[in-house]
Amino acid sequence: MKKYNRIMAVSLFLYLAAALLVFVLWKDESMEQDLGYKVEINKIMRGLENNEMFSKPDLRKMETINSVSFLPADENSVQEIRLFYENRNKLSMTVRPLFVEDRFLGYVRFDYIESGNRRRILWFLEGCLFFLWIVVFILLLYIRQKILKPFHTLSEMPYELSKGHLQGELQESKSRFFGKFVWGIGMLRDTLNESKRKELKLEKEKKLLLLSISHDVKIPLSAIKLYAKALQEKVYETEEQKLHAVTQIENHAKEIENFVKEIVSTASEDIVRIDVENSEFYLADFINKFIAYYEPKCRLTMMDLTIGRYENKLLKGDMDRALEVMENLMENAFKYGDGKAVRLDFYEEDYCQVITIFNTGTAVPEEEMPHLFDSFYRGSNAGNKDGNGLGLYINRQIMIKMEGEIFARRVDGGMQFCLVFRM
């Protein structure tokens, strides 16, 4: 804001400098014009005084003198005298006596253009400068009050959200520039708050589950230890007693194995909580949003993005979640592909809309294909690239919740993923 205030101060300084320049020009013009017509009159008078009688001077080189007229000394007609002195075309007038060698010939009248015209232009220019500065100052003030100041207030909110401070309130804004932004930040805060609440609840449930299972595991574990110690110390004398002890150890071991399976199953199910709001959306809207986001990114990375022909069908599902699926696939293309090309094709099959996404690069080995959508699974082509193996797992969960499907194919020159949407 301080820099912007300096800009406003500079605009005032520039206006004052321009106004001062115009004032100086006006002053110089006034002085020049006050003396200009007198210089020309004196020049004409010197020429007339060198003649024995009055003759019309040449006014073509004169800037201020418009006309010159003569009233002889012996003219006594009232009408001629009145005509000589009357106002002509609202020009300024001055009268000089004409003497030639101390002989009075009469009076010479000079009609000249008053110098105020150019001064009025300078005054008009001064007014225009003042009006222009007022407009610029009001515009700068409007930008400061309606755009920069609200943005300065809102700029702290993303930082607070990144620190986990989710309880701050945003004031409602009627600004046409930031109304939707404020609403979006508010939605983001509510979403993060709800996610944090669900995470705490899930963590609590997991701890309770682990405590419960650990308590249940203690009983069969104690029994196993007891039977094992009995066998070790040869408490059982007959083969039938020993066989019974071994059978009990095996049964209790199966109980523990079932508890472990339950823990693994629960952990796998709760890796991510995916909420899908199924409705309907148009394929064209979906593709346009995808292009708007990824076309600039592909252009920057020199990747060729090709969109095949399609018909604008009405699809069932959650468009935001479907875009998340496309995002995961595109990020995988950037990360694991060769960065040359991505192509989207469309076709209809069994009353479903299929979208195929092909990216060039090295395909996943055939033996790894069955595990591609497993949680935490990363193919051998991942190398040392960052990732956690959840992207394709999340994609499948989203597509299943939208009553669709996703599968992968190894094709010549790269990988192809197929998304199936119900219509």
Tally of strands: 10
Structural class assignment: alpha+beta
Rg from C-alpha positions?
A: 48 Å
Q: Shape from CA axes?
A: rod-shaped
Distance between the termini: 52 Å
What's the CATH class label of the largest domain?
Alpha Beta
**What is the CATH topology assignment of the largest domain?**
Heat Shock Protein 90
Oligomeric description of these chains: single chain
Q: List the helices and strands in order.
A: HEHEEHHHHEHEEHEEHEE
- Low-pLDDT stretches: none
Q: Largest sheet at a glance?
A: 5 strands, mixed
Structural domain tally? 3
CATH architecture of the largest domain: 2-Layer Sandwich
Q: Count of helical segments?
A: 9
Spatial order of strands in the largest sheet = 5-7-8-10-9
Q: Please state the average pLDDT score.
A: 78
What percent of residues are in strands? 15-25%
Q: Provide the CATH superfamily of the largest domain.
A: Histidine kinase-like ATPase, C-terminal domain
| Helix percent band | 55-70%
Descriptive report:
- With 423 residues, the chain is an alpha+beta fold.
- The chain folds into 3 domains: 2-117; 198-269, Helix Hairpins (Orthogonal Bundle); 279-422, Histidine kinase-like ATPase, C-terminal domain (Heat Shock Protein 90, 2-Layer Sandwich).
- Helices cover 55% and strands 17% of the residues.
- The protein is built from 9 helices and 10 strands.
- It has helices at residues 2-49, 78-85, 116-154, 156-162, 179-232, 239-269, 283-300, 319-336, 391-401; strands at 65-72, 92-100, 103-112, 279-282, 304-307, 314-317, 341-349, 352-360, 405-411, 414-422.
- The strands form 3 sheets. The chain has a 5-stranded mixed beta sheet with strand order 5-7-8-10-9. Strands 1-3-2 form a 3-stranded antiparallel beta sheet, with helices on both faces.
- Helix 1 (2-49) runs antiparallel to helix 3 and helix 8 runs antiparallel to helix 9 (391-401).
- The longest helix is centred in the middle third of the chain and has 54 residues, at 179-232.
- The chain is rod-shaped and about 170 Å long.
